[in-house]
Every structure is written in structure tokens, then in C-alpha cells.
Amino acid sequence: MFDYVNAGGTCPKCGKLRIFECQTKDLDPGGGQVYHFRSLPEHWLEPDTLFGRAFRRATSVFPEFPYDKSPSVWNDQAERIEAAATIPEELWDKLNFIEVVFVCSCGAAFRGKLAVKGKFLWGPLYDVREDK
Hints:
Layout: E1 3-10, E2 17-24, E3 36-38, H1 53-57, H2 77-85, E4 97-103, E5 109-117, E6 120-130
Parallel strand pairs: 1-3
Antiparallel strand pairs: 1-2, 4-5, 5-6
């Protein structure tokens, strides 16, 4: 089964910067469940950036309507964002990257990689090539 990963990148064909919904088999430690992940922004640990951890640490969590119950679970946006980027515990510190496949809205299909640092998915897609 495929897991889903939302990750940013630039389409090599149309040149537009997008958030792609990617699929991967690299994050399944054998449980057979389907998970949804989001990579952390490239500048997550830099202070004083709008998308950085420090800013999100002080920002409240807003529900994603209509049925999100997570505001009762997360202390702040940083905790929620990091939870979405955390890979299964069995894989912590064992991967440098994952391979993903995705399709751009321009219709082109690609393969690429997404960095893994410790227990988190990080940054934009890289080593993107057309999937034939």
C-alpha cells in the first residue's frame, strides 16, 4: 500500500512551484496502514521566519473543517506540523531520504526524493525526474 506525502517542489515541465501529493512505499514498516504525511518547511529551524518553528510554537491551532478534532490534542501549530512530518518510529534514524512518485497538474508524472532527518521528512522534493 502507498502512503501519501505532501511536499513542495518545482515542476520540471511547467516550472511552477507547487505542493504535490506524492505517494511512497518507503514508509511502510509492515503494518499495512495508509498514512498521510507533510514534509517540514526547509527553514523550519531558522529563527524569525514565518514558516519556522519558533513562530508556530506561539500560534494556536485552527481546526480544518468540517470534522477536525485536533485542537483538543495539539498545544500549538508547531507540534501539529511536526507530528505530520514524523515517520514511523521503526524507521527513525534509518533513512536519509524516501522515494516518491507524483503527478503535476500540468499532467506530467515524476519520481523524486524527499530528505529524512532523524524522524522527520524535510524540505522540498529533489532529484526529480520524469516517470516513464
